[in-house]
Write a structure and sequence with these properties.
By secondary structure, this protein is an alpha/beta fold. 41% of the residues lie in helices and 17% in strands. The protein has a five-stranded mixed β-sheet. Strands 10-13-16-5-17 form a five-stranded parallel β-sheet. The protein has a three-stranded antiparallel β-sheet with strand order 1-3-2. A hairpin with a 2-residue loop joins β2 and β3. The chain is elongated and about 85 Å long.
């Protein structure tokens, strides 16, 4: 029967070989038995092959777990689904499941061991990713950047370390930071969860990790040649802003579900972590920077479990600090030395401002008029207003909203721009 089951659920394999024994999972038998029991209890009843899919383990492993649960009279067979057993918990199994759920309500895919996680992260380091000028041109194509800025960004990305993007507000620092992950063309494997000392830490996050073909987290096929506890994803992109606190850099404990979620930097491993509006968080900049002195320098991080037990994980990520404050006012020389690339993102030139306006008009279906934009540039100069790269899009949005309200076709004219600027800019005089 085991042979038939493998044939029934085999597909085109991806990734590494799935463990065929409990020992090869890197997890304890008791953890796997407990997780399986919770899933069966919460489902009420399900087939053994469905349990394989839920835990993302091979039939060979789950058959051993099922036999042990049955021997201990924690679950029983209620019938057959074709040639597959259907399972449910016994009265004794229900009591045990409730005890386990009181400690942790995690009932997702089986985790991977900490050792396996560390080895996988190190094997797909962001520093090993090939980056060429063409990658930057493609990633930043929607933005208007000088060749000098692109070269600075490319150099920073190749270093695989960290970067300060600083400069006045509205110059595109956040847009640049959020485009940085698009430079990378390779994929990485992200685990659903990691086990450390019996504790399960959720890592895969649908809001952060973008799956690729054949690596979908929703793909519930079970292939004995594939370890489906891992999901194939684009390199992660994690963005945190003013909401960042020092607690968010530690394991996140959900009181309701009684299990842990990985902090931002662990979810961003092998990818990019963007600290937007740095210096405006609820945590003092020096406190945040002190927390990351060792990770940025030695590329390792330490997290704590209940009871104070610390464990080490890789800190393999490209950290981007974006701020409109002076970096020297936010960090001391020791920390700034660890961030070896600082790029000032400044106001646009007249030519860049025209090009940004032209692209925004094309995107929004407006006819671009260079004379109208030139007149706007002159008006801004008269009120000593710099050419912020954000202005074209913001002004065009004002024109579109006004046209929609008045039920007329939007147009880029001196009159519509003047009306938009009166709404948008303080002290604007055409």
């Amino acid at each position: 029967m085991a042979y038939w089951m493998e044939e029934a659920i085999t597909d085109d394999g991806i990734g590494g070989r799935a463990p065929e024994t409990i020992e090869e999972t890197g997890l304890s038998r008791s953890l796997l038995e407990g997780l399986a029991l919770k899933i069966v209890f919460l489902e009420g009843q399900l087939s053994l092959v469905d349990l394989c899919k839920r835990m993302r383990l091979s039939y060979a492993v789950m058959d051993k777990i099922f036999r042990q649960l049955r021997t201990e009279q924690l679950c029983e067979v209620t019938g057959m689904d074709g040639m597959v057993h259907r399972l449910t918990t016994t009265s004794r199994g229900k009591d045990r499941a409730l005890e386990l759920l009181a400690k942790s309500q995690y009932s997702g895919p089986a985790p991977v061991g900490l050792k396996d996680y560390i080895e996988r992260v190190e094997s797909q380091s962001i520093r090993a990713s090939e980056v060429r000028p063409a990658n930057l041109l493609r990633a930043f194509e929607p933005l208007v950047l000088s060749e000098e800025t692109l070269t600075h960004l490319g150099t920073a990305v190749v270093s695989g370390r960290s970067i300060f993007l600083y400069g006045p507000s509205g110059t595109g620092k956040t847009a640049i930071a959020e485009a940085l992950p698009d430079i990378y063309q390779d994929e990485v494997w992200v685990p659903f969860a990691v086990e450390v000392d019996g504790q399960i830490i959720s890592v895969y996050d649908e809001g952060v990790h973008r799956t690729v073909d054949n690596g979908s987290a929703d793909d519930d096929d079970t292939d004995s040649s594939v370890d489906r506890r891992w999901v194939l994803c684009k390199r992660p992109r994690v963005v945190v802003g003013g909401e960042l606190t020092i607690e968010m850099l530690e394991l996140q404990s959900d009181r309701l579900s009684s299990h842990y979620s990985a902090p931002a930097q662990m979810k961003a491993n092998n990818g990019v972590l963007i600290i937007d509006d740095f210096g405006r968080q609820r945590v003092r900049p020096e406190e945040l920077l002190n927390r990351w002195i060792i990770p940025l320098d030695r590329r390792i991080d330490f997290l704590s479990l209940p009871g104070g037990r610390k464990f080490q994980i890789p800190f393999d990520l490209f950290v981007v600090f974006a701020t409109n404050l002076d970096p020297s006012s936010l960090a001391d020389a020791a920390f700034l030395r660890r961030i070896q690339t600082k790029i000032k993102i400044d106001y646009a030139s007249r030519a860049q401002f025209h090009e940004i306006f032209r692209r925004v008009c094309r995107t929004q279906g407006l006819k671009y008029d260079a004379d109208v934009v030139a007149a706007l540039i002159d008006d801004l100069a008269r009120i000593n207003e710099p050419l912020r790269p954000c202005y074209p899009q913001d002004i065009v949005h004002q024109i579109l909203w006004s046209a929609r309200y008045q039920s007329v076709a939007p147009e880029l004219t001196r009159e519509t721009i003047a009306a938009a600027c009166r709404n948008y800019l303080l002290g604007y005089v055409a």
